[in-house]
Amino acid sequence: MKDISEIRADFPLLGRTVYGRRLVYLDNGATTQKPQCVIDKINEVYTSYNGNIHRGVHAISDMASEAYENAREKVRSFINARSTREIIFTSGTTGSINCVAFSFGERYLKPGDEVVISHLEHHANIVPWQLMCERKGARLRVIPVNENGEIIQEEYLRLLSPRTRLVAVTQASNALGTILPVKLIIEAAHSLNIPVLIDGAQGIQHGVVDVSDMDCDFYVFSGHKIYGPTGIGVLYGKEKWLSEMPPYQSGGDMVENVTFERTTFGDLPFKFEAGTTNFVSAIGLASALDYILDLGREEISKRELMLLSYATERLSAIKGLRIFGNSAEKISIISFLLKDIHQYDAGMVLDKMGVAVRTGTHCAQPVMERYGIKGTIRASLCFYNTEEEIDILISGIEKVTGMFNQKI
Amino acid sequence: MTINEVQDEIINEFSLFDDWIEKYDILIDLGKELPAIDPRFKTKEFLIEGCQSKVWLHPEFDGNRISFTADSDAIITRGIVALLLKVLSNRTPKEIISSDLYFIDRIGLKQNLSPTRSNGLLAMVRQIKLYAIAIDARI
To answer: Which CATH class name applies to B3-138?
Structure first.
């Protein structure tokens, strides 16, 4: 792996200051910073070949279409899907899940059916299913979690039944960091012929993801959380499902033949890509994936685990600090609270010290309720963070506890 | 003192500090000094919910002026609430309705009142004005 100072130099934003202090960016779970190659790629598209894809017969439209389809192939090989017909570009994880919730629901859900999710889900993997269940008279079932923030596997197995139509779980919790046993979840569901959607928003950027090996039926993720541009996401789906599912949104580019009487839809993957997609960001995402492959996904995992264990050790030593989520398998996210200090107060002071963390419920209110709390402070680390930055977080927290505790 | 005189006084007080941490120290002290709200009013009816912190606000009208008591679960928010009440509590409805709150921006706390910063403060300012408008319409 490259030297850490070389890696950091690839990300121009990491060099900036805020409030006159060096920025310590520990909010990578929300969005990641972009390497120069991604920024350059977006610039390159707009500077040299910005033409609408799949439409024009002219040179720059062809160039853009080719770059877009190459990006699709890059995503396919990155997650080891069988075919580019199984790779749909969307606006992000939320867009991908909404697409499946609508199209899968329309095709397969009947009154009385059940959809199983976990207590760890982000709102994006709760609300679309809730709405789908309301539409279809189906029922949402929730896998409970234990005190460590791990799903209770026996309870999951008990929830599976002939009524279960789909299981939709996250690969890793955005609020606690827990990595879910997705292979086990998928195997159990498949033994009853139940398809599984994996929300990879917090999984794809932390290690090797192989959808063929995992054998999930759907896998979704966002570009901006894996060092790519915003506004682009991926929906991987096994062809047997995608080909049977009706389109989600409709419009241009996804149709084969349109008359006022009847429209026939285009082939996969275009059936699910209505209108002009964010092709610039898709091309930018391919650059980000190249960057990740260049660094090495195993290397990234190793470095992030090292940072996680260093941060966990240092945070645990702070008196009155409680970490939420102590699963044996975690991504580099640490959620915590300081005794008697509101997470918002802590976040406000840390911000002014240059430390960017997220505070609040992390769009995962049910899991906060599970612990009877209103939110946490979340530090989400990634490979470009350093031990020194964790030290700055620690001294920031010490400052916070000093400021508030002496006042109470 | 008029609303603007109080605002100017706050601006002067905060201008002594460049450092953010010192400003927050004042806010923490102010929050601590904020008179407690009657627990009877810490209910859903008087709750202004933000995504990050909560604010409770209770108006009382004596026939001439409206006074407010308030609280928040976050101390910095409580400090800003205390500042807002210094400026807007114990005023006539007309004074409140016509007030222009420029001090928030001038002491550098504008981000706390932006719609995206869902700490309940922006909603609180709106609520104070709504109470004033409703009371003014009644008298």
So the answer is: alpha beta
Contact B17, B23 (CB under 8 A): yes
For chain A, domain boundaries: 4-30+296-405, 39-293
The pLDDT value recorded for residue B119 is 60
Mean pLDDT of A135-146: 97
Per-residue DSSP letter, B38: P
Structure confidence at residue A356 (pLDDT)? 97
Cβ of A399 and B21 within 8 Å?
yes
Indicate yes or no: CB of B51 within 8 angstroms of CB of A374.
no
Given B1, B32, B35, B51, which residue is catalytic?
Answer: B51
Query: Catalytic amino acids of A?
Result: 363
How high is the pLDDT of residue A254? 83
Which pLDDT tens digit goes with each residue over B70-124?
Answer: 999 889 889 989 999 999 999 999 999 999 989 988 888 776 655 555 566 778 8
Chain B residues within 8 A of A359 when measuring between CB atoms: 52
Alpha carbon A379 to chain centroid, angstroms? 16
- Which residues on chain B are in Cβ contact (under 8 Å) with A397? none
pTM over 0.90: yes
Provide the residue ranges of all domains of chain B, joining segments of one domain with +.
3-138
Residue A304 CA to residue A298 CA, distance in Å, equals 10
A4-30+296-405: CATH superfamily: Aspartate Aminotransferase, domain 1 (3.90.1150.10)
Q: How far is CA A34 from CA A73, A225, A292, A300, in A?
A: 21, 10, 11, 16
| Nearest C-alpha neighbor of B73 from the set B126, B34, B109, B20 | B34
The residues, ordered by sequence, that sit 6+ positions from A400 with a Cβ below 8 Å of its Cβ are A338, A341, A345, A346, A349, A350
B18 in reach of chain A (CB within 8 A): no
Give the pLDDT of residue B117. Answer: 56
The whole-angstrom distance between B20's CA and the closest CA on chain A is: 6
CATH class of the structural domain A39-293 = alpha beta
B77 touches chain A (CB under 8 A): yes
User: Does B34 touch chain A if contact means CB atoms closer than 8 Å?
Assistant: no
Contact of B16 with chain A, judged by CB distance below 8 Å, is answered with no
- State the pLDDT at residue A408: 47
